[in-house]
Amino acid sequence: FGISASQGVTDDSTSFSTRLKNIIYTYLSYYFQLSAAKAAEKVMVEKLGKSITPIWDTVSNMTWMLTNTEPMLEFAKPTLHKIVDIGGISVHKPKPLEKVCIKFLIVMKSFYFWYWDQILGMRYRTILISFGSVLQSSKMPDAYKRAVMNLVKSHSDITFIWKYENTKAPFANGLKNLILSKYTTAARRIRNLLAKRPFTPEEKLVKTVEVAAEFGHIPEYLVMGRNLNFIVYYNLDIFLLLLTFCLVTALTILYGATKLLKRIKVEKVKAE
């Protein structure tokens, strides 16, 4: 349960509170999907009759599943070969820049690197404070902001770079070791990763459709776990066997030890 649930609001850290929330949200997500499927199946029965294939049977027998997900922007998770991530396929491709724009970008890039070299060279240590692209630091409660400011003030020998939406925020005035920046190199790294990923969403979609058109239903992509019952799926029979073996072993040892102690006691009495 280290992976966030589909209806969850936590991250993929392994702290106790996060794992507890993930368990709760996992079951809430399950019941949400179950209720949605039941409602859809009820309508299908009313419109098409009782001979329709149940929704969960249809889902489990799908050869391909296309998801609007980009792995570079998601939590790491176990997945199946049948799941094809095509997130970002609707994003328009950028148009080629003119030569003047390219030269301008080269100059700006050189200035960018020079600027950050100066920042990183101000002190021996530098710390980046960033809460990602979704959570905006400017909307944090004032108490949280004051906590960050107190941290910055208490370590004047460290340069702090805070990813903040308003670089002219008044609370940063007078703090020489605090740099407010709208963008950080982390966002640039993600952009470069997306640009150099092995396969684009378009390529994955086209290849998947071509294979589906040529081979149709592919049984090799079906997971055997879809037909397992509760006991087999969670290996409860194996755990029960191991538990029984451990109990029998423990009872045997206890019985043998008891018999041995009684025998020693009897022999001791006879000797007296």
UniProtKB/TrEMBL annotation:
It is an enzyme of class 2 (transferase). One of its GO terms (molecular function) is glucuronosyltransferase activity. The chain crosses the membrane at residues 231-255. It comes from the Eukaryota. Its EC number is 2.4.1.17. Keywords: Glycosyltransferase, Membrane, Signal, Transferase, Transmembrane, Transmembrane helix. It catalyses: glucuronate acceptor + UDP-alpha-D-glucuronate = acceptor beta-D-glucuronoside + UDP + H(+). Belongs to the UDP-glycosyltransferase family. PANTHER family: EG:EG0003.4 PROTEIN-RELATED, GLUCURONOSYLTRANSFERASE. This is glucuronosyltransferase. It comes from Cylicostephanus goldi (Nematode worm).
